[in-house]
Design brief:
alpha/beta, Glycerol-3-phosphate (1)-acyltransferase, seven-stranded mixed beta sheet, 7 helices
């Protein structure tokens, strides 16, 4: 069985590699002639292609819970704070959300051949972590602009991929941005590590659940208490969705 999973993992890796090269080339060539929204949906097309390949090749299904909790207005703001277990949610969130998203990510990703080159054409927030406070000032400045034009900002508060059944340190960058802008935060729990473990090449079939929580107002809140509420909801929902992973942590 492991051999079959290995073969399927290799095929999906090749699928992503072979499709990203022509797709990214097209993005780089045509992006000067397109609007930011058109560039976004062009790039989103490849992410949907990668997720489609994950379903057909790897046998990974997505199940979304709580879509009714998302804002419905074209320019209604939102900051999505998402549990981070694997690369899968970075692809799937764009493929699953009905609205343009802007990731906050480290600028080093822009140097990844083809994938990073296409990302550089998208209207997102790439930061230099070594700049500290100046980096966050950039997040606030660009975040305000993106939220005002109707783009939802997405962040992973734990900062890095966390192994299944574990919890990282929830940093307050996302809730600080929410307090600065007045945008509501929407917590999202994700069980991607059941199929696509952190830093693992071998993927297994199964269902990844994306549970979208009710929006939490940031008005009049302090970033740390707001993040504590986000953390409490996400981690409680993770235990509900994937109880086997937390059986020895009760």
């Amino acid at each position: 069985m492991k051999l079959l999973f290995f073969i399927r993992s290799v095929l999906h890796f090749l699928w992503m590699g072979l499709t990203v090269i022509p797709w990214a080339t097209v993005v780089v060539v045509v992006s000067p002639f397109l609007s930011p929204t058109q560039v976004y949906w062009l790039c989103a097309g490849w992410l949907k292609c990668a997720v489609w390949g994950g379903k057909r090749i790897l046998g990974i299904e997505n199940k979304v819970i709580g879509l009714e909790n998302l804002p419905v207005g074209e320019k209604s703001p939102a900051i999505l704070l998402v549990k981070h277990q694997s690369t899968w949610e970075t692809f799937a969130m764009v493929a699953l959300m009905p609205h343009p998203l802007a990731y906050v990510f480290k600028k080093e990703l822009l140097y990844v051949p083809f994938f990073g080159w296409a990302m550089s054409r998208m209207d997102m927030i790439h930061i230099d972590r070594s700049q500290g406070r100046r980096a966050f000032a950039k997040v606030v400045e660009q975040g305000k602009r993106l939220l005002a034009q109707g783009t939802w900002v997405i962040m992973f508060p734990e900062g890095t991929r966390i192994p299944r059944g574990q919890m990282g340190e929830y940093k307050t960058g996302g809730t600080r941005l929410a307090v600065e802008t007045g945008a509501p935060v929407i917590p999202v729990a994700v069980t991607s590590a059941k199929c696509w473990p952190r830093k693992a090449f071998l993927k297994t079939p199964g269902t990844v659940e994306f549970s979208i929580g009710p929006p939490i107002s940031s008005v009049g809140r302090k970033p740390d208490e707001l993040m504590a509420e986000v953390q409490q909801w996400i981690e409680a929902e993770m235990r509900r969705l994937d109880p086997d992973a937390y059986a020895d942590r009760a």
